Amino acid sequence: MSCNKFFSILIIDSFISLSSNMASARRLKRVVASQPGFLNLKSTSNSADSASGRRKRLNKNKKKSWNKHSDINDVEDFLQDVRHQERTTGGLLSEKSDDSLFFLDVGQPKKPEQKGKASRPLRIDLILQHDSLVPPPKDVLAYQQPNAKKLRRSAQRAEQLAAKGVVPRRRKQLLNRRPVDRTAKKAETEANNNPGREYYDIWGQECDAADPWYLQQTRKSLVKRPERLNEKPSVLPAVEVIAPGGSYNPDFFSHQALLQEAHEVEVKKQKDENKIERQLAVNREDTATEETILQEQVEGLVEEEENEEETAAPKGEEEDVAVGAITLAAKKTERQRKRERAIKIKEQQRLANKQQTDHRQQLFQLRSIKASIKQQDQKTKTRQRQRKDNQEAQKAQPRRLGKLKFQPQDMEVQLSDELAGSLRRLKPEGSVLKDRFKSLQKRNLIEPRERAKFKRRHKLKYVEKRAFREIT
């Protein structure tokens, strides 16, 4: 107990001495601040606190209070100084050698004699240069490799097998492969019915695997690619250059020609729209009225009654005549048949004589026949030439690849008052993405298509909310 009392008295004594020292320090600060020549560097609030002599008590038992009430300006200044040294010199000055910081001044070096002016970099190039000596951060994604762990294990396994002297199966296959002479020309396949061709057994143990006939019969040779697959679907270029009138500062005549072309396109569109309107137009004279409806309903009723009365009487007579005609028809006699046969033979002879006479007459018409044949050949050649020209022109046109027809893109033309005259005031028009999409359709690479329409799967369900129900 005596020891505990001694320690408690010692602690109280030290606390009293510490408090007296702090009080004397605060008193000294107040005295200094009251002097007329003292310059205060703190804010007014701090000076007021210091003048009042009250100390603001802060609770620093949490990390949030540390960040809020701790003074880290010296640390920030130190880090800013380090970053500045790294930016300007590439590292800390304390870590650099004396040779890199100091140099020996031996005077101005002699300039070599040059005929022309020494080339110096331009000011704009110096501005664009990177002025920081800090190396760029390392791109971690550039060093990542897919399946790196699996590949590393495979490499380790291969090293272990190589240390044991085991050759992998794939390595054996590569070593056993027959070297291919790529400089040698491919031998042409000989015909099957050639008696001079060497004979060998396909199913035998020893066979020449490089023989074209063997490769063809065993289906190991590659199939020859058809030439039509190498043809382009269209002769149009991938990027079509617009006419000279489409420039930002075009010539007057070329710009007028482009405007005329755009005008013709719009006139054609207007004609098509007017044609559709005329076809769908309704004639007012053809509209039905009450009189025309009544006339259509009554039409034919009176005439049918009169026709029935007229045709009722002679109906019986016609039936008697028809029955009598059937009964009067008699069988032809042999004399009549011979006469008809003779007439038929005579007609055939007359036609044969006429045909022979025509052939004889054609001998005297050889000139006219030759002229007609020549004229027919000329017409045939003209048609062939026209058909070939149409085929060549058709190659430059988009084909019908789907159910939709190709619609050309609208021409991007500026009027005379819209011309910019310089690239600075030029306004961009159109869309590059849409232009490339239309180009693919025009060159028959993809079919013309339209944007997919949204089709709702379920019907909309309208629910009346409670708040709305209470208001209404």
Automatic annotation (TrEMBL):
Pfam family, one: Nop53
Gene Ontology CC entries for this record: nucleolus; nucleoplasm
Keyword set, alphabetical order: Nucleus, Ribosome biogenesis, Signal
Compartments where located: Nucleus, Nucleolus; Nucleus, Nucleoplasm
Keyword Transmembrane helix: no
Bias (Basic residues) ranges: 53-67
GO biological process assignments: ribosomal large subunit assembly; rRNA processing
Signal peptide positions on this chain: 1-25
Major localization listed first in the record, in broad terms: nucleus
Region ranges (Disordered): 42-69, 299-322, 370-404
InterPro entries: Nop53/GLTSCR2
GO molecular function terms attached to this record: 5S rRNA binding
Positions with biased composition (Acidic residues): 301-321
Assigned protein family: Belongs to the NOP53 family.
Described function: May play a role in ribosome biogenesis.
Listed name of the protein: Ribosome biogenesis protein NOP53
Encoding gene per record: nop53
